[in-house]
Amino acid sequence: MPRVVFELPGGRSAVVDVAEGTTLLEAARSAAVAIEGACGGNMACATCHVKLPETARAVLPRASAEEVDMLDFAEGLSAESRLACQVRVTAAVDGVVVRVPASSLLE
Fold first, then answer.
1. pTM for the whole thing?
2. C-alpha 94: how far from its chain's center?
3. What SS3 state is found at 26?
4. Which of 34, 38, 26 is nearest to 89 (CA)?
5. Strand, helix or coil at 106?
6. Which structural domains are found in the chain, ordered by start?
7. What are the tens digits of pLDDT across the range 5-54?
8. Whether pLDDT at 106 is above 90
């Protein structure tokens, strides 16, 4: 089972073993990482915005045109940005560190 590390603001982190095919949003919620995901993971908002390193982006499918359009609404958008509801975990990203911006956390 691949392992994902959610790096949270303030230096906190959560390490999660994730079944392949699970989205990062689902993985975060199963580990009690409070990523917002206001639309319930239906790609209708950008509140589950996370940042992925180049090593992960190189082996994952590229963001769809719809995801890229939705990311325009994310606070702190960068080349590393993805929506956690759209990224499915594979063995190729085992050990990936996913940075969660403060703007993506439930208050």
1. 0.95
2. 14
3. helix
4. 26
5. coil
6. 3-104 (3.10.20.30)
7. 999 999 999 999 999 999 999 999 999 999 999 999 999 999 999 999 99
8. no
